[in-house]
Write a structure and sequence with these properties.
Elements: E1 3-4, H1 6-19, E2 26-33, E3 39-46, E4 54-58, E5 61-65, H2 67-73, E6 77-83, E7 86-92, E8 98-99, E9 105-107
């Protein structure tokens, strides 16, 4: 399960409206190889489900995770930070054993 904080929900709703994404859009969260710690987070809007996708809903936000990424992201909380140290989505991942300084990549 992927959790969504209230600040992340507000920002996601705003960005879906700003991008003109279709009403049936959902948030696709995943991981890919790369970054200084080995794996990087991916967050995008999508409308098509793939085979093996896991679907969740939290705070009215539909989240979809592909089968491979789910193993790395189970229990993760998606947050949004708008502070002085930079704006952006933050993944609070209990499975990561190491993260890079910018927080955009991790390893398990």
């Amino acid at each position: 399960m992927i959790k969504v904080t209230e600040s992340a929900k507000v920002q996601l709703v705003h960005e879906i409206a700003q991008t003109g994404s279709p009403e049936e859009s959902f948030v696709r969260v995943g991981v890919k190889s790369g970054g200084c710690s080995g794996l990087s987070y991916v967050l995008e809007f999508d409308t098509k489900l793939g085979e093996g996708d896991q679907e969740f809903e939290d705070r009215g936000v539909k989240i979809v995770v592909d089968k491979k990424s789910f193993l790395y992201l189970v229990g993760t909380e998606l947050d949004y930070s708008g502070g002085l140290n930079g704006k952006g989505f933050v993944f609070v991942n209990p499975n990561s054993t190491r993260t890079c300084g910018c927080g955009e990549s991790f390893s398990v």
